[in-house]
Automatic annotation (TrEMBL):
Source organism, top-level taxon: Bacteria
Record's protein name: ABC transporter ATP-binding protein
First and last residues shown, out of full length: 1 to 225 of 334
GO molecular function list: ATP binding
Key words, A-Z: ATP-binding, Nucleotide-binding, Transport
Residues annotated as transmembrane: none
Native source organism of the sequence: Metabacillus rhizolycopersici
ABC transporter domain boundaries: 4-225
Length: 225
């Protein structure tokens, strides 16, 4: 079954077309990148998937359900942003545990899942640390763990690495891909970095002015004229 489907999705703000007929079919466990210049509508697609905004027309399906029937809080769509937005007064452990506690998961299950997730992102040793004691890359790994630990059906990543310096960014790209494969989770990454798109994606959707200009595997995209 396809995990995420957008069918002829249009979005207008006032009278401006921001998305003009977006069609996407994303399989379970795919790593997808939306690549394109600033303002082409990438983040708008993510906001429509989370329910932060509605499409003007068209159909959005996740996991076989039409999103017009599913309230944003019930969508099980996770999101990681460029700014980590961690709780500054909570330890790494508490930051990652927070969403599980909100969902009334039993304490021993919370502890088990948080520990597992901290191992997966390589921060088991840092669980007692506070955000200000961590590097930017480590903070982004906490943000990733916090989003993943609630087991979303789809994880959306809005330029999560672009605030980091080049070397750490490269390292985290590889790590992100490894984690994605391990969890077999569907991920949709937004970026304007061509090299990043190339190195992490199963498939790339190249966007321009609210439309999909090209779609395919990294080698499809970069060997065709
Ligand atoms: P990207 O993520 O590719 O940079 P966005 O999806 O953020 O692009 O924005 C696409 C276009 O929609 C831009 O021209 C932006 O100015 C416009 N836009 C985004 N949000 C709003 C809004 N709330 N009201 C009006 N226009 C908006
Ligand atoms: P809570 O009451 O906060 O839900 P638990 O009492 O279920 O947490 O904790 C179970 C285990 O989880 C603890 O033995 C410990 O190993 C770990 N743990 C819980 N809270 C923290 C914390 N703030 N920092 C580090 N580890 C913690």
């Amino acid at each position: 079954m396809s995990n995420v489907i957008l069918k002829d999705v249009h979005k207008q703000y006032e009278k401006t077309n921001v998305l003009s007929g977006i069609n996407m079919t994303i399989e379970d466990g795919e790593f997808i990148t939306l690549l394109g210049p600033s303002g082409c509508g990438k983040s708008t697609i993510l906001r429509i998937l989370t329910g932060l905004t509605d499409a003007t027309s068209g159909k959005v399906m996740i996991d076989g359900k039409d999103m017009k029937d599913v309230a944003p809080k019930n969508r099980q769509v996770g999101m990681v942003f460029q700014s980590y937005a961690l709780f500054p007064n909570m330890s790494v452990y508490e930051n990652v545990a927070f969403g599980l506690k909100m969902n009334k998961i039993k304490p021993n299950e919370v502890a088990k899942r948080v520990e597992e997730m901290l191992h997966l992102v390589g921060l088991a040793e840092k669980k007692e640390a506070y955000p200000h004691e961590l590097s930017g890359g480590q903070q982004q790994r906490v943000a990733l763990a916090r989003s993943l630990v609630v087991r979303p059906k789809v994880l959306l990543l809005d330029e999560p690495l672009s605030a980091l310096d080049a070397q750490i960014r490269k390292h985290l790209q590889v790590e992100l891909r490894t984690i994605q494969r391990e969890l077999q989770m569907t991920m949709i990454l937004v970026t304007h970095d061509q090299e990043e798109a190339m190195s992490v994606s199963d498939r790339i959707f190249v966007m321009n002015k609210g439309k999909i200009a090209q779609e395919g595997t990294p080698s499809d995209i970069y060997t065709k004229p």
